[in-house]
Amino acid sequence: MTMDDTSKRISSPSCITHVSQKQDLFLIKFDEGDPRDPKNFSYARKWAITLMCCAFAGITGAASSSYSMSYESMMQDLNCTRLQATLGLSLYAIGFGIVPLISSSFAEECGRRPVYIMSSVLFMLAEVTNALAPNIQTVVVSRALQGVFGSTGASLIGGSIADIWQPHERGIPMSLFAFSSIFSFGLGSAFGGLIASSPDLGWRWVQWVHVMFTGAFALGVILAMDETRPTIVLTRIAKDTRKMTGDPRYRSSAEIDKPSMASLIKTSCTRPLYLLSTEPIVQSFSLWVGFVWGVVYCLFESVTPEFQSVYNFSVGKTGLVLLCQSVGAIIGFTVNMYQETLYQKHFATKGQEARLYMPCVAALVLPVSMFIYAWTASPNIPWIVPLIGLTAFMSGTFIIYQVSFLYLADCYGPYASSAQAGQSLARNLMGLVVPLFTQQMFAGMTYKWGLTLWALLSVVMAPTPWVLFFYGSKIRARSKVSRKILEAEAQISDGDTTVASSPTEEKSMQV
In 3D, which of 489, 30, 23, 493 has the Cα closest to residue 236? Predict the structure, then answer.
């Protein structure tokens, strides 16, 4: 059989699949309006998947912050030091940073749903191990495993949303993802503080409550989560077509010249690092978001001792103070509604950079809010004043966190998960490092001057979104890899799911 423009249409019980003849093979592509194409899912189905993903982000976020509120109870029960307890917080963060280098790209090749199922079940089992831990060593190991298995919350969710929503539709779904992550930080702190401070409960019950929620989520994933990766859906359709017709020539693009397992693992590990090391967009956002995330962990370490020493708050009350994160998330989510309006209005002229109006404002809010928190925590000033500073900071953090996923998803389409995995590595490395030295820093500099230092650094970082707002399109235009990825996204929108159309292009993504 020779190459020509011959095409066939294969009917299935549910819909029509387009097949084109190429190199003695029949390439199966989504027909226009095919309901099996994830971007053509019904809105009810899309929102069910989106809310399921957001629930995972919320669970993993709450597991991080609630743990930090359990230090006192844990130290008494396990006879450990504060530094040993803090290791559990840091190793959780590093699990989120490193594992997506493998899991995100591997899911792009093998499917997102199996990774969600495996990760949610193993995440729950790691929480059980933590709740039953007889010593601090077991706690630290189980927390590291929680970070490993929960890392899909930071790596796959952005890609799943990009799979099912068109670029102009992603604003609200991605905002909900960011909202669930940041809101759950405050909610986890509040409930963690209340549970850990109860003499009848303690730190172990913090973990048991998480086990209950994670178990319910894992069951929901198994029963309700759909596969959203288009190449995986087409591969399954191709297999079903071969079985139905008995003709081995029906193939999806992903099945042609399929890489070996060794090559797949290499690509999975190196693609996020490659994007992080070569793409200015990924680099700049990774540095900025990493810094902000480090400050968030710094605040975790400062709020409890500072409000206890300055305002004589109990552990339970300081947990309620951290609800300002949830309030900040609500404010940030509301602000993003306006940002979405600006995006729709200015996308035609600004392109992807229309996402950056509110982040430019947030970059100015961060240093101001940190100065307020650093300089107003005093017995002579009501506690509500530094709390306002914390709330404003978390509002800005929400906007930045949200746009880091949304902007990268817009710019890197099919490889959104890999770009976000690179960003997640930088972000969570800061989450690893900062808690390990903040107590020593505050002891040497005091809380006022230690937080002032972070505020000054945030002033230095403030130009990041402004530079991208004015020059982002020019930066992408000069990036060879960025152009290839955008071309690949255009091919997918035309029905061709081959990400790299030639061996040369595929090689460039594996460097």
Answer: 30
